[in-house]
Amino acid sequence: MDSAAPYLTQRAERTASGEVLDLATALVDAVGWLWAHWYVLAVVIAACWGLGELVVRQFAKRASVQRMALELIPQRHFDPGFEEIFRRGVQLARASTAMPWWAPRRAKTVQIRLRADGSAPLRYRIEGPAGGQRLLSITPFGPSVSVEQAPPIADEAREHVVRAEFILRGRLTAPLREVPLDPDPLQPLVDAVADLRAELGDLAEIRLDIQRAPKWALRARRGQLMSAARRSERRESTRAARWVRQDAGGIEDSLSWQLQQLVTGKAGSGGRLVMPPVPRRVDRDEALGKLAEDDHLVRVQLLVMCASNTEGRAQARLAQLQAALDVFGGRSRWAMRGWRLGPWRIGADHWPTRHAFERRWTLGHCQPPRANWVRLEEITGLLKPPTVNCRLPLLAGDLPDFQLGDPELLLQGCYRGPDGKPRTVATYAAETLFECAVGKAGGGKTERALAQAIGWAHAGGGLMFVDPHRDSWPRAIPFLAHEHLMRRIALIDLNAFGPSPLLSSWNPLAMQHGQAPHDVAEAVTDAFASVLGWNDAAAPRALTIFTAALAVLTAINEAACQAGRPGDQATLFHIRSLITDADFRSAALAAVKDRLDEETWAWWRTVFPTFPPDAFGVVLNPIARLAANPVTRAFLGQPVGVYNSRAAMDNGLIVWVCPGGNGPTDRLLTALIARDLLRAVRSRRDTPPEQRRPFRLYFDELITLTGAAPETIAAMFEDFRKYKVTVHGMTQLLGRLPGPVRMSLIQNASTLASTAGSKSAIAPITAEWGETPSADEVAVLDRFDHYMSLTVDGRRIGPVRITGPHLDEVFADQARPANVPQLQDAAHTMAQAVPLDELTTTAAAQHSRVLGLLADITPAATTAARHNQQKGYQ
∠ CA 809-813-816 to the nearest 5 degrees? Predict the structure, then answer.
């Protein structure tokens, strides 16, 4: 038994050895078979990989269905700091992981979409997991950016589409260039799509996917970088040692070395001791660069697509975007992925990468190249919408093109786009309520207003152009001399030059149109008070006397109209007779006793007689000045005036009013016209809003007009919108306007425009624009160039640089110089203008006619009144 044990042990050892040998032989045979049939192994590996990829894609597709989209719309003065943008980047990185646990990593991403399709200069959109919506909806940008739910975008198919994927080239550990926030880092991208034309089907979109860096991939990449750094250092050390040995050998073979040995007697001694350089320790931070720390490190995927229905435009757009991305380039830069073979590039537009691009583009999957590692600080310029430091282009959708004859459009000027092509732009008439134009004389303010008024007239609109200097009328008439316009044009010209000037007429106290007497009296009183500085504190007696006198005269005129005798109405000049002529006063009071209220009647009977004669000078002096001027005497001294601002508004007439001059008398007349306008517009309350015909007022030389009626002009800018009457004001100096007018105008202006001028004069306008552009930029504008801010679709557009329209260019086809005399005659006919001498004669005889009226409507008229009538007392 004992002798058999060694035998069994040896047999077991031989058996185990045989099994090991057999196993090794089998493994060698298997390896040999696989080597001979390698394609089988390849097929198995490919099948397993394909099956795994298919499963991952299905899970990723399922996860991508649960996504949300937000659109960020910045306000004009959006100006975030670096910290705010960085916090937004942290939010985006955190939101990318708000996915179910089973979602593949390629679906765990947040996508920034920068899109230009003609609807906006650059739409900024965020898409990501539905679970991150609450996190992404509340931004660190605050109220400066509004966040709205964004519907899916359905693009129509374009004929020409180009695609590109950008990867980081250069040193993997090197950062992108640090781009400052001013100017906006998005400016190159905005400029690249500035000449996009939606009517040609142009489309450009950039998609930046942000994904949190996986730890295992980061560790692997760090290991590779450290190993590569160590290998590089060893190679450098070996190369340095080789050069040191070569240098040492060269020295020993040199003549100087041999002579030294002979002199010192050390010939034959051993060679020099050479110490090869020792490889230095690799610095981790230097070797890993931006990958050294885990904080705020993300992987990114940058995809670009451009499309157009015109051949070549999509390719050119992609080249522009590629150049725009170069602004981020430093030791690391964005480069288009693919290969170039001579004139051909093989990239995302070609097999085999096109299908993968389309899948990632459609589903929002992120599969970035291994080199696309960035820190959030490197891409801060892409983590926010365009800021105040970004110069946005004016797209065709921002301002409509002007079409002559379209009543919905109001001409603004000529805009030259980034592509250099000019187009005549307009705003919507319904939204252009009040306009303010500032600039030096000759800068183009009046020319632009004339072009706008002429375009509005050709569209069938009604307007009144008030020009104290009359220069606008001869400039405009060649373009208004059309048959269909002549029937609507009236000229109220008070300049009265020439041997036999033609003049229209107006009676501010006339009642033939059914006005309320108290409204007429109030309008005239306010006009005189505004020019003469009357108020309850400074001139209470003047206000009282004047108001009481107007109450009597309007009662007389109301009685005359009811009696069918409008030609016998009193005028402003009968205030003197009412105050200074006791007989006329007695006849007037007796005639309208039943038409006056008890207080007014009692005032005339009891209070008026107590006033000393010198109390009436403050009232009589302005009337005397009006009477001393033959033009104002003839214009205001007619019983039935032709000028009727309310009728002009309701009938859509084109009225040119030229008050003439800038003296005290002219200011008083201007104030009367302005106050009558205010009364007439407010009287439109008797018409339903939908039946009020739009009417536009153009005030040239606001300084002159507001000097006469500041409170009246201010009230216009505050009230007229309700009655579908808009005001367009022009002035050289905004600072010279009265405070109430300036504040009301700036507050309610739909359009602010400025031509060139001194910086001090322009500063109030540029301050409203946030000093962008600055007063320095506006001050050096060329003639007819404007910076202006406009209102379109409820949004403020601009300020943008627009060349004011020149009549000879914009309306060249509408010029009818041969019809100018015919238009002049038609304008005078519409205004019922007659020679000044005839009007003067009528005004001189009006006192007798009024006395005759008083005698006829008052049986108990005084004998003195009848006697004065017979004498024709004036």
Answer: 110
Residues in the chain: 874
Bridge pairing between strands 123-129 and 795-803: unpaired
The conformation of residue 727, written as its DSSP 8-state character, comes to E
Give me the amino acid identity at 458.
Answer: H
Both tokens of residue 76?
A: 């004009």
Which residues 6+ apart lie within 8 Å of 484 measured at CB?
A: none
Residue 20 neighbours by CB distance under 10 Å: 10
Q: Which residues of 210-225 are buried (b: 16+ CB within 10 A; e: fewer)?
A: bbbbeeeebeebbeeb
Among 816, 799, 682, 806, CA closest to 752: 799
CA distance 285 to 741: 66
Strand partners, 124: 72, 114
CB atoms within 10 A of CB 61: 15
In whole angstroms, give the CA distance from residue 314 to residue 303.
15
Give me the DSSP letters along 100-120. Answer: -TTS-GGG--EEEEEEESSSS
Alpha-carbon distance of 596 to 602, in angstroms, equals: 10
What sign does the CA torsion over 485, 412, 754, 421 have?
Answer: negative
Look at strands 123-129 and 67-74 and give their pairing: antiparallel
Answer yes or no: is pLDDT of 269 > 60. Answer: no
What's the pLDDT score for residue 16? 67
Residue whose tokens read 């931006």: 290
Q: Is the dihedral of CA 534, 535, 536, 537 positive or negative?
A: negative
- Decide the pairing of beta strands 695-699 and 332-336: unpaired
C-alpha dist (Å) from residue 346 to 335, 369, 804: 14, 17, 49
The residue among 691, 685, 682 whose CA lies nearest residue 651 is 691
pTM: 0.77
681: which residues sit within 8 A by CB, 6+ positions away?
A: 645, 649, 716, 719, 720, 723, 725
Task: Please list, in sequence order, all residues whose beta carbon lies within 8 angstroms of the beta carbon of residue 559, skipping any fewer than 6 positions away.
Answer: 591, 592, 595, 853, 857
DSSP letter at 369 equals: -
Residue 490's closest CA among 641, 683, 338, 675? Answer: 641
Return d(Cα 407, Cα 815) in angstroms, integer: 20
User: What DSSP designation does 529 have?
Assistant: H
Contact 337, 165 (CB under 8 A): yes
Q: Could you give the percent of the chain with pLDDT greater than 90?
A: 24
The rounded distance, in Å, linking the Cα atoms of 599 and 434 is: 42
Higher-confidence position of 109 and 233? 109
Cβ–Cβ < 8 Å for 608, 615: no
Q: Return the ∠ at Cα 33 (arms to 30 and 36), rounded to 5°.
A: 150
- Print the SS3 string covering 645-671: HHHHHHHCCEEEEECCCCCHHHHHHHH
Report, in angstroms and rounded to the nearest whole number, the Rg of the chain calculated over CA atoms: 45
Mean pLDDT (the chain, rounded): 85
Please report where in the chains the tokens 């003609």 appear, as a residue: 118
What pLDDT score was predicted for residue 865?
Answer: 40
Residues 6+ apart with CB under 8 A from 43: none
Name the more confident of 327 and 663: 327
**Residue 266 one-letter amino acid:** K
452: confidence class by pLDDT, cuts 50, 70, 90: very high
Q: What is the DSSP secondary structure assignment for residue 798, as one 8-state letter? A: E
- Write out pLDDT tens, residues 474-499: 999 999 999 999 999 999 988 877 67
Q: Taking a C-beta distance cutoff of 8 angstroms, is the pair 393, 417 a contact?
A: yes
CA distance 495 to 488: 22
Pairing of strands 462-466, 695-699: parallel
Residue 85 confidence (pLDDT): 92
**Which structure tokens are listed for 546?**
């004047």
87-to-4, 109, 215, 292, 559 alpha-carbon distances in Å: 83, 17, 22, 21, 79
Measured CA to CA, the distance from residue 623 to residue 526 in angstroms comes to 15
